[in-house]
Amino acid sequence: MVELVQHLLNGFLIGGIYALMGIGLTLIFGVMNVVNFAHGQFYMLGAFVVYTVFTLAGVPYLLALVVAAMAVGLLGVITERLLLRPIRDQPPDVPMLATIGLSIFLANMALIIWDPTPKDTGLPFPLVGVKVGPLTLTPMRLFVLVAAFVIIAGSHLFLQRSRMGKAIRATFQDREAAALMGVDVDVVNMVTFGWGAAMAALAGGLLAPIFQVFPTMGAIVTAKSFAVVIVGGLGSFPGAILAGLLLGIAESLGAGYVSSGYRDAIAFILIIVVLVVRPTGLLGHETHKLA
Amino acid sequence: MAQPLTRTSRYLLAGLLSAAVLLPYTVSDQFIIRLAIQSGIFILLASAHNILMKVGLLSLGPVAFYGLGAYVSAILTTRYDVPFPVAFFAAGLAATAAGWVIGRLTLRLRTAYFVLVTLGFAECFRLVALNWIDMTNGPMGITAVPPPARWFVGYIPYFYFILLLVVLTLFGLYRMEHSTIGRAMQAIRQNELLAGSIGISGFRYMLLAALLASFIMGLAGSFYAHFFQFLSPEILAFDLTIAIVVMVVAGGRATLMGPVLGAIVFTVLPEVLRVVQVWRMAIFGLLLMLMMLFMPDGIWPALQRLGQRCFERVTGRRTAAVVPSSFGSPSEGFAANGSPPPVPVRVEHEVTPTDRSQTLLTVERLCVHFGGVQAVHMVDFDVKAGEILSIIGPNGAGKTTILNAITRVGPITDGKISHQDALLNGLRSYEVARCGIGRTFQNTSLFPDVSTRQNLVLAHNGLEPESLLLNLLRSDASVQAAKDAEVAADRILERTRLLPYGASLARSLPYGHQRVLELGIALAARPSLLLLDEPAAGLNPPEVSNLMAMIQQIRHEGVTIVLVEHDMKLVMSVSDRIVVLDHGRKIAEGRPEEVRTNQRVVEAYLGKRS
């Protein structure tokens, strides 16, 4: 029983991170109609920025997270401006392949800059067990849980309350109508892509102290973000949260009780099953809406 | 489209082929022959993947079929001592079977969904290959895969083997491209909805594309396993998928030569880039981005454009008029002022016309509900052979919804629609089209990126033989079908007065001409019943009169017409009967003069007098 709860808790933790990845990816798809294959590379870069700033330069962890989000967010903005905007009106596979090119480029640049050996960032918090009933939680894991929750809630508020958030939601619903109502769609695209990238970087930065950091870590995360977005319904914000948690828990239980070799298969099996049975995802509609 | 190869390209082709055949004797460097063999494998893979591009599908799962073929062949020969030729075809068939199953499951998905589901299948295959250690040896891989035959020593036999496979595949694809099947695929890629409305089954051709692609990939996989004589789950890696997709897209998707060129360039390029060592893949990624930015449709089309420009400069003349210099009105001299159409009326249809007692189409208690919205509720009407029936009503009355229900493009919640005693409810849109029911769409719907004439050639497709074998063997029937399509296209160009624009891209036509072309597309499929959805929307008065004359002429040829239209002048002058809808319900039906004076109709349009 305790083991089960521990698995669930681990799943929740990973799931929160998947949700962070999924939200960014789903927003980018909904607003820009781009399937971003470089999403996992933003995650990888976030982890490496934290490693460089926190571990190598000795800057406090929280500040390092902020630096990672800003740096990778800026990279996202530049990507939108220089790579995606010029090909916005091309058939959808053109931007998709452009992000695949970006993904290959970023992974291999990371390989050159940080070499392929996996890195340990070290722990920003003391390694003591915090007893919660029969469960043991390290402060680091607790921090990841809380941080993921805060970032998701903050994004939600940003989308609902801020002027920019409203512009994003309007563009999401109908790009042309939004443009006609005076929304600067170019800026919306830039903010959405930059912000999605920053969220991925935060996800990477949060998990960096728990797992190791290496240049090829992005690819599988991209694939899992796809799974989250598909299961939740392309373009659905709450769907991405639900599906992220679901995938995290399913993987954690699958690895604990079935076989760890097929752990990574769960994401792909979920994609296939959902698309074959209910192509709009758990919370998706025919015309995807943003909650 | 079916123009024979020019003399120059024949010589070029013969030259290339003999250069390929002689390669092992002119090059002593074994490394280059090995590279040529690898290029050959990739030409097969890229060309196969490109078949899916021809129907407008981007898959990220080609390695699943390649890998499956390789594993089937390697396991059969190493574990069960099956002779190579059997294993080779078993590999192709196993991949085809997988293509069939996966295709049936996924082909109704589009764009991003299809991309991701195919990626999911490929990754699942990879994880099975990694983890089913009893069968695949897992990450250790299968070693000592035997050569295809004992005399396969050195690279040369492999070279000729792959050359044979490549030549056969490309020849088959060339034949296919210039056949009914190739034209159907072009129509689907350009506009799947419109293709359905002229009798082309999108699903059928997509499945055919998936089967052909997976068969070729399976064979390529088998060749790979027996050439390298070692097989590991690496063959299923996502990187390889990327390589294949890049070859197709960078070369020029949906062209015949693009993937060949792409495969050669992207097999050789990484070898060239070896000099830059660690920067190799980073540069590769950068190149891919630059290519998408500056050559999004690929190297081959860019080369073709360049070649054409050089040709024009040298000879000083334009090769093909892409857009005529000035746009006249298609209505010039044609019935615009009530004069009879100059084109002789020709009865093309074998329908026995004008027996108005015969009922052609019956709509009974039709309901179409979207959630709680009753877009159409309990509507009954029938269409008599040879008449022009108009359906009118304010916006949102459910007119287009009814046309969509009849042509099975949209849903039917309840009720029955039958055509000459056959129930249409269970049919798909292309099957309805094949019953002789044609239609146009409210929003202009054409094959935008081909010429006006080619639009009409494609529209003939539903009348042609679709068997793969007949088309590949270029049987009399398929040759005749191609000729018929050309003749029919010219005739319709003439009838619709679009002859001067035959070579123009359809999307470059002015709006009025596009609407006329739509009508031409519907006619090319030889319907006996034609449903027109607001054909006059956005046309100027002369264009409307022209349209009116055309509609009447079409009816004289024996085609029954259902017209959904807002232009009252048009409706009142051409209709035999009118059905009036309001809020999804039929409120009146009768001859134009009856409807005009009907109190409920007046209220629906003008509001109730208070």
TrEMBL record, chain A:
The family annotation for this protein states: Belongs to the binding-protein-dependent transport system permease family. LivHM subfamily.
Topology relative to the lipid bilayer, per the entry, is: Multi-pass membrane protein
Q: Where in the cell is it found?
A: Cell membrane
What transmembrane ranges does the database entry give?
12-35, 42-59, 96-114, 140-159, 190-214, 226-250, 262-281
Q: List the InterPro entries.
A: ABC_transp_permease, BCAA_transport_permease
> Which Pfam families does this one have?
BPD_transp_2
Give the GO biological process terms: amino acid transport
**Presence of keyword Transport:** yes
Magnesium found in the keyword field? no
| Protein name (database record) | Branched-chain amino acid ABC transporter permease
* Entry's Gene Ontology molecular function annotations: transmembrane transporter activity
GO cellular component terms, semicolon-separated:
plasma membrane
Which UniProt keyword terms apply here?
Amino-acid transport, Cell membrane, Membrane, Transmembrane, Transmembrane helix, Transport
